[in-house]
Input
Amino acid sequence: MEKKVINTPKAPLSTSPVSQCNIVNNTIYIGGQMPRDLKSGKIIEGGYHQAKLSLLHCLTILEEAGGSIDTIGMAIVYVTDLSIKDDINKVFSEFFTNNAPARNLVEVSDIGENALVEIAIIAGLKD
Output
C-alpha cells in the first residue's frame, strides 16, 4: 500500500500537525476543512458562507490531488448547531446539481476558533 500526501498553498494549511489530504489505493481522503479565509487566516462569518468556503477548500484540494467534484463519494459535515442544516443543504444543492455524494451531517460541541462548519471529503481519482 502506497500513501501519497497532498498539501497545497491554494487552501489554508491546518494549524494542527496533519496533512490536508492523503491518497491511498486510488482513494482521496481530505481532512476537515475549516472556513478560514486564505488571505487573512481568519474564520469567516455565517453558516452559509462558512459551509461554502469549507467546501470550496475541499474542492481545491481535491483538484490538486487528481479528483473532481464528480468523484466525491462521501462528504462528512461537522456543525456546532443543527439549526444551520438549511444553509448546508443550500450550499450542497448549488454545488451538486445531479451527482450528489453521500453525506453525514454531524453535530459536535466545538470545532475550534468559533467555526460553525468543517467539511471532510472522501473521493476517487479521476480516470
About this structure: The beta strands are 3-6, 21-24, 27-33, 72-79, 102-107, 117-124.
